[in-house]
């Protein structure tokens, strides 16, 4: 499935590549697969993408348009496509042409070889963007992986393969504003990557301004869970204990007759104890807020799936 924002010029070329994959395909490892539907989610961009989608749907029966009421953004549009899908596997790829649909078979090979529920593209070349944007993207992902991921997905791309029932379940429970890959990381047990080469973007300008990219990163930070709140909680405990210990040190030093300015010891003891109590209290509040955040984002306590041996992951080369 493909979220479409500015696809008027690039969708026809991508459609030709998708049509070439119609019918039964055989991957490099001998797995048989078939492209049963191509969902085009119209995210109300400023061009004539709607007309292009309608024309493709009229010409190709396997194309299914999904019409959103307004512009929601790439991740909500992707969730809408996942919720509307029906296949055993869901592939998400951009409409700008940088993702080659011919690599889909390689995604399936990796998923079945590693028994993985989710497979991300791992580009072997730089993304076709400017140096500044590429550097900012790498920096944002490094910050997330180093400080916020907490065991969740750490490297991700918009070109991905996910088990169909998992993708539809994520689309059902994810709350508004949740970063898609964070939501996938909540329930996916096994994640793999496949090396791919990114292509040029088809000559159209990117739909992401610096403002939208910063908003994208901030959504990633906010939906990464309670990791940041737990940092606040830990700081409250550390500073609270430090304040108590330093206050005891000042009292003992003053009792041993060490010279200090009049009133300084009592002032420092009050300041340290008060600051420690405030930060410790903020840490407790952060824990309660963290519980509320997890509930608001829709993070499930569990997710029931079918027996993997009887589903797509249990199929061996030669079976469809």
Automatic annotation (TrEMBL):
Assigned keywords, A-Z: Cell membrane, Glycosyltransferase, Lipopolysaccharide biosynthesis, Membrane, Transferase, Transmembrane, Transmembrane helix
Glycosyltransferase 2-like domain: residues covered: 32-123
Annotated TM spans: 229-252, 264-289
InterPro entries reported for this sequence: Glyco_trans_2-like, Glycosyltransferase_2, Nucleotide-diphossugar_trans
Domain of life of the source: Bacteria
Record PANTHER family: UNDECAPRENYL-PHOSPHATE 4-DEOXY-4-FORMAMIDO-L-ARABINOSE TRANSFERASE, UNDECAPRENYL-PHOSPHATE 4-DEOXY-4-FORMAMIDO-L-ARABINOSE TRANSFERASE-RELATED
Family that this chain belongs to: Belongs to the glycosyltransferase 2 family.
UniProt name for this protein: Glycosyltransferase family 2 protein
Organism of origin: Terrabacter ginsenosidimutans
């Amino acid at each position: 499935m493909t979220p479409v924002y500015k696809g008027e010029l690039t969708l026809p070329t991508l459609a030709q590549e998708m049509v070439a994959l119609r019918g039964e395909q055989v991957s490099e490892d001998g797995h048989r697969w078939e492209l049963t539907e191509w969902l085009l989610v119209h995210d109300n961009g400023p061009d004539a993408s709607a007309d292009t989608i309608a024309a493709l749907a009229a010409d190709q029966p396997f194309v299914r348009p999904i019409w959103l009421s307004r512009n929601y953004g790439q991740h909500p549009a992707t969730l809408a496509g996942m919720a509307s899908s029906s296949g055993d596997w869901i592939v998400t790829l951009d409409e700008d042409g940088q993702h080659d649909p011919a690599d889909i078979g390689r995604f399936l090979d990796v998923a079945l070889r590693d028994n993985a529920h989710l497979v991300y593209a791992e580009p072997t070349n730089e993304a076709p963007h400017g140096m500044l944007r590429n550097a900012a993207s790498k920096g944002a992902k490094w910050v997330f992986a180093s400080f916020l991921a907490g065991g969740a997905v750490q490297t991700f791309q918009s070109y991905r393969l996910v088990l169909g029932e998992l993708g539809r379940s994520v689309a059902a429970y994810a709350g508004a504003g949740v970063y898609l890959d964070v939501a996938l990381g909540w329930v996916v047990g096994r994640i793999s990557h496949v090396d791919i080469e990114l292509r040029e973007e088809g000559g159209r300008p990117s739909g992401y301004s610096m403002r939208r990219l910063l908003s994208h990163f901030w959504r990633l930070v906010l939906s990464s869970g309670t990791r940041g709140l737990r940092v606040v909680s830990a700081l409250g405990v550390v500073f609270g204990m430090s304040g108590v210990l330093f206050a005891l040190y000042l009292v003992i030093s003053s009792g041993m007759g060490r010279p200090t300015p009049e009133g300084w010891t009592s002032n420092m003891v009050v300041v340290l104890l008060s600051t420690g109590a405030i930060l410790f209290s903020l840490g407790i509040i952060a824990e309660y807020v963290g519980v509320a955040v997890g509930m608001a984002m829709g993070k499930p306590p569990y997710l029931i799936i079918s027996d993997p041996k009887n589903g797509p992951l249990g199929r061996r080369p030669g079976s469809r």
